[in-house]
Structures are given as structure tokens and as C-alpha cells.
Specification:
Blueprint (H helix, E strand, L loop, with lengths): L1 H8 L13 E4 L8 E2 L7 E4 L4 E3 L5 E10 L4 E6 L2 H4 L3 E3 L2 E3 L6 E8 L9 E3 L4 E9 L30 E3 L21 E6 L12 E3 L4
Antiparallel strand pairs: 1-5, 2-3, 3-11, 4-10, 5-9, 6-8, 6-11, 7-9, 12-13, 13-14
């Protein structure tokens, strides 16, 4: 682990500076090795090794035919592709432990509202997800009767942060529109966009934008 972190600290954006050999088995004639689409891609593309149908609302495992032998200080995680997400096809995240030796399967759900009664078809060879390899940290959990260190947030759960309000400035007319003063002034409004947290105040003049639509 220390060796990996020291290599990361000296990372020079060379695509080969973090090369780590990982043994791969391919199961089935259509299985393909995960491939990085660019030199600095964080995830490598996973391909379907079999045809599959994604019926509306039904989580479906799509086979890749890829088996990995990751070093003990690494694990894999499955991430979706934005092109599928934009169509309403969601990919469930998954964790691949270093001692897992089965084939990688991608859990996909068709939540698309387009032609909602028809399944979406995946063909062998289609890129379906991304495989991201990450370092493993295994902490030692210690039970203690002492109070945990206090924080401002405390036991605030879901929705407890980011509750600041957004203030929208009143429209300001900066020029008389063509056609005289009786024409609508809506197209000439100036809007200032400021997102406020619970403890911060807006900075005037930041993020100003003119709405120029007519």
C-alpha cells in the first residue's frame, strides 16, 4: 500500500507511471479485456459478452466474461456510463474484492420512459460499464465507551446540510427596449446567481449573467 501511495505522489501524468499487472481470464468467445479509452481515463470499458434484454424496471445481470486476480491492496468497482444514464438505463455500483474469482456481471435496470413496454437490447461487444480499480484501506475498528469527537453537524442525517436559501435579485432594466417604453421589459432583465450556505453571505457581482432572449 505504501509503495502504491508513493508512486501516486510522484505521478507525472505519464499513462504508464502507475501500471500494475493484473491477471485476467476471458470466459466465452465474445469476452474482451477491459480497455482504457484514453491515456488518462480513470475507468476501463467493460463489454457485454452475451446478448441481453433489459425489460422495464427489472434489474438484469449482464455478463462480461471477465475474471480478475487483483492484488490484495486493490479492489474494483463498477461504474455506469453516462450515455446509458442519459437514456434512463441505470447501473448499480458493485465492489469486486481481490479474492473474488468469478466473472464480472453488470447489474443494469431499464428505467427509460421511452417505449416503456419494450425491452432495451444489449448486444455482445457493446460497452456497458466502467471498471475502476482503487486502493484498499482496512482500518482497525475499536469499540470505545468514550464520547466521539464532537462536530458542528452532530447526528444530522439526510438533508441536514446544504439548506441555505437561494436569493434571486429583482430584475434591473439597463436600457429602453426597441419600440418604446410600452414594450415588455422581460428580455432585458439582469440576473445574479448566488447559492448561499447556512453560514455564508453572497459576494456581489459574482456570477452575473444577462438574459438576452427575446
Amino acid at each position: 500500500m505504501g509503495s502504491l501511495l508513493s508512486r501516486v505522489a510522484g505521478y507525472d501524468e505519464s499513462p504508464h507511471s502507475l501500471d500494475i499487472p493484473v491477471q485476467v481470464n476471458l470466459v466465452g468467445e465474445n469476452a474482451r479485456v477491459p480497455v482504457f479509452s484514453s491515456d488518462l481515463s480513470a475507468g476501463s470499458d467493460l463489454y457485454a459478452s452475451e446478448d441481453a434484454e433489459l425489460h422495464p424496471g427489472v434489474p438484469t445481470k449482464v455478463e462480461t466474461g471477465v475474471r480478475l486476480a487483483l492484488p490484495g491492496y486493490l479492489y474494483g468497482t463498477i461504474a455506469g456510463r453516462s450515455s446509458y444514464n442519459a437514456k434512463g438505463i441505470l447501473t448499480a455500483p458493485g465492489v469486486i474484492d481481490s479474492d473474488y474469482r468469478g466473472t464480472l456481471k453488470v447489474l443494469m435496470t431499464n428505467n427509460s420512459t421511452r417505449d416503456s413496454r419494450d425491452p432495451i437490447r444489449i448486444k455482445a461487444g457493446d460497452r456497458i460499464a466502467q471498471l475502476v480499480i482503487m486502493p484498499v484501506i482496512r482500518p482497525e475498528y475499536m469499540i470505545t465507551a468514550d464520547e466521539l469527537p464532537s462536530t458542528t453537524r452532530g447526528d444530522g442525517g439526510s438533508g441536514s446540510t446544504g439548506n441555505g436559501q437561494i436569493r434571486v435579485a429583482e430584475p434591473v432594466v439597463e436600457a429602453e427596449p426597441e419600440g418604446g417604453a410600452n414594450r415588455s421589459l422581460e428580455p432585458y432583465r439582469t440576473a445574479r446567481f448566488c447559492t448561499l450556505s447556512n453560514t455564508h453571505t453572497p459576494s456581489p457581482g459574482i456570477g452575473g449573467a444577462r438574459l438576452a432572449a427575446r
